[in-house]
Amino acid sequence: MPIETVETAGRRRGADLLVEVLRSEGVRYIFGNPGTTELPLIDALTEAPDIAYILALQEATAVAMADGYAQGARRPAFLNLHTAGGLGHAMGGLVNSQVSGTPLVVTAGQQDLRHALTDPLLMGDLVAIADPVMKWAREVTSPDQIPILLRRAFHDAGAAPPARSSCPCPWT
Q1: Tell me: the pLDDT tens digits for 133-145?
Q2: CA-based torsion, 128, 130, 131, 137: positive or negative
Q3: Could you tell me which of 65, 124, 132 has the C-alpha nearest to residue 95?
């Protein structure tokens, strides 16, 4: 497969770039509880039968499933949460994962940044919320940042020391 340039990648949907990076990182499962902000990802997964979305009824359960998988597989698990509320629901499990040294890569959906001035429901400073329990946290503000930030998240999650997870959140 040819190497994608940033200029070409910028013309693709963020969710398609996300799926491409997940494949290249060997991700077979996404654990999460999606909402409307994750619809582009769910749509992109229809073209990715090799990646299964493991649906949880609540974010704390999704964290527990991802944590167990990461410990069993001995590799970072990928966790997808829904907005600030979902990240809040996940915090107890993320603290447990941090204490256990479980490598997780966590994304959280965000409201469309073009609407930020209107204080949309469920929008929040996800990086500030996640930072206390993450090894590294960043906000994706444009699709062309997804490959760089997501690769760094996987690298950092799997690197020593294993005490904290990585979160390039929110992705758009």
Answers
A1: 888 888 888 888 9
A2: negative
A3: 132
Q: Give the chain's length.
A: 172
Which of 7, 6, 41 is CA-nearest to residue 27? 41
The token pair at 91 is 């915090």
* Structure tokens given for 21: 């990076």
Contact call for residues 150 and 170 (beta carbons, < 8 A): no
pLDDT in tens, 12-42: 888 999 999 999 999 999 999 998 888 999 9
Distance in angstroms (rounded) separating the CA atoms of residues 140 and 137: 10
What's the rounded Cα separation, in Å, for the pair 18 and 44? Answer: 9
Q: Could you tell me how far CA 57 lies from the centroid of its own chain?
A: 17
User: What token pair was written down for 59?
Assistant: 């974010």
Alpha-helical segments (H) within the chain: 6-9, 14-24, 39-45, 59-73, 83-100, 126-130, 146-158
- Residue type for 150, please? L
